[in-house]
């Protein structure tokens, strides 16, 4: 039994030695990053970047909805603008008897009031952005491109190249105009 006690004490002693040695190797104290400087730039210092004239990022709630004669309804619930993309939160319900696609020919786009077009970056597992009959799709549509800083509104256009009778098409053209850009 004496050996068991000795081993316990030896283990504790070794743990203390390792901890102290580790602290000593760090100069007695744990290293910490230097404090951030908050000094204002010197007068005439031009090294700071100039403010951008590009549209700055923002997020805003939306309440835009459309119903289409095909049986599809679409509601936009939020918009987020980043430096290189525009995202829309959507809820799409397919009340039709057929599956409906929103990006049948890679033509799901946003168009701003200045005429610029932003194409969707579709999900890899649903490139046509198909909504199965009798289901609701909830998610985010991400459109690629930097928003024109002078734009004040957007229009979402699903199947922008589609033609024919939209009521019976599996890829009807659907427009959601007047999406405001509040910055």
Task: Explain what you see.
The protein is mainly beta. It has one helix and ten strands; from the N terminus they run αββββββββββ. The protein has one helix spanning 2-25, and strands at 58-67, 72-81, 85-94, 100-101, 109-112, 117-119, 130-131, 136-144, 153-158, 174-180. It has a four-stranded antiparallel β-sheet, with no helix packed on it. Strands 6-5-9-10 form a four-stranded antiparallel β-sheet, with no helix packed on it. The protein is globular and about 40 Å long.
Features:
4-stranded antiparallel sheet; mainly beta; 183 residues; 13% helix; 1 helix; 10 strands; Immunoglobulin-like
Number of H- or I-type helical stretches = 1
Note the overall shape. Answer: globular
- Per CATH, the architecture of the domain at 58-180 is Sandwich
Taking all residues together, what is the mean pLDDT? 77
Uncertain runs with pLDDT below 50, 5 residues or more? 1-54
The main sheet orders its strands as 1-2-3-8
> How much helix, percentage-wise, in residues?
10-25%
In percent, how much strand structure appears in the residues?
25-35%
**What is the quaternary state of this protein?**
single chain
CATH fold category name of the domain at 58-180 = Immunoglobulin-like
Distance between the termini: 77 Å
CATH class division of the domain at 58-180: Mainly Beta
Alpha-beta classification:
mainly beta
């Amino acid at each position: 039994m004496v050996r068991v006690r000795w081993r316990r004490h030896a283990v504790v002693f070794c743990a203390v030695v390792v901890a102290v040695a580790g602290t000593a190797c760090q100069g007695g104290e744990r290293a910490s990053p230097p404090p951030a400087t908050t000094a204002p730039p010197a007068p005439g210092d031009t090294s700071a970047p100039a403010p951008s004239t590009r549209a700055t990022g923002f997020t805003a709630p939306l309440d835009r909805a459309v119903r289409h004669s095909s049986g599809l309804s679409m509601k936009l619930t939020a918009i987020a603008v980043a430096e290189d993309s525009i995202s829309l939160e959507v809820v799409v319900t397919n009340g039709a008897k057929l599956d409906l696609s929103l990006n049948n020919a890679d033509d799901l786009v946003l168009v701003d009031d200045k005429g610029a077009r932003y194409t969707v970056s579709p999900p890899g597992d649903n490139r046509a952005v198909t909504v199965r009959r009798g289901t609701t799709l909830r998610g985010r549509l991400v459109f690629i491109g930097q928003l024109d800083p002078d734009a004040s509104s957007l229009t979402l256009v699903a199947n922008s190249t589609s033609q024919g009778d939209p009521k019976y098409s599996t890829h009807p053209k659907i427009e959601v105009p007047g999406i405001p850009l509040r910055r």
